[in-house]
Specification:
7 helices; 4-stranded antiparallel sheet; globular; binds flavin mononucleotide; alpha+beta; NADH Oxidase
């Protein structure tokens, strides 16, 4: 089993998949890791739709190509649409005056991080994708109108698991200490 630091390094966007199905129990483990993520007031605003049925998956993959990318999406045996529940009521009277959707957006990000890191631990690979029309995805997947699809994640076995290395800003560029 990998240590967290190794998993963080190993997780990378995968854009080429083996045509091998993912065991349902592994999909469940990934979803469970997301389920346990923290959220503002424990509101848990995430809703997951898991697509393995080939025709629906192909249609969803087509919706991801709106700006020409994501041609690999249908190769992945699993696509997971992550939607944000309509504005959850956060501690009425205390946090209500704030824009709770702001929290929900961040909450979804944390859940997606948990899911993708768990997948990596299981030897699976993922790519988080954001280019699609929310309304088209909701219509295809029968997601409630008042929800917002935030990202779609591809999940499967990578056809090439070579680590590409990380292209990231240095710590000096993104962090400062006040001491
Ligand atoms: C919200 C979000 C949307 C993204 N959308 C896409 C996408 O539509 N297509 C794609 O190939 N990668 C997409 N990515 C992946 C990023 O390009 C990638 O995470 C980034 O370049 C860092 O590379 P790494 O994931 O391999 O470490 C997205 C990532 C995030 C977090």
């Amino acid at each position: 089993m990998y240590q967290l630091d190794e998993i963080i390094i190993k997780r990378q966007s995968c854009r080429s998949y083996e045509p091998k199905p993912v065991a349902r129990e592994d999909i469940i483990k990934c979803l469970d890791a997301a389920r346990l993520a923290p959220s503002a007031c424990n509101s848990q605003p995430w809703r997951f739709t898991i697509i393995t049925e080939p025709q629906t998956k192909t249609k969803l993959a087509d919706l991801l190509k709106i700006i020409g990318g994501n041609k690999f999406a249908d190769e992945a045996p699993v696509l997971i649409a992550v939607a944000e529940e309509a504005c959850p009521e956060l501690m009425p009277g205390v946090l209500k005056k704030w824009d709770c959707k702001h929290f929900a957006h961040g909450d979804i990000g944390i859940a997606v991080a948990h899911l993708t890191l768990k997948a990596t631990e299981l030897g699976l690979a993922t790519c988080i994708m954001g280019t699609f029309e929310d309304k088209d995805v909701k219509e295809l997947l029968n997601i409630p109108e008042e929800h917002k699809t935030r990202v779609i994640i591809s999940l499967g076995y990578p056809s090439d698991s070579k680590e590409r290395g990380k292209n990231r800003k240095s710590l000096d560029e993104i962090a400062r200490f006040i001491e």
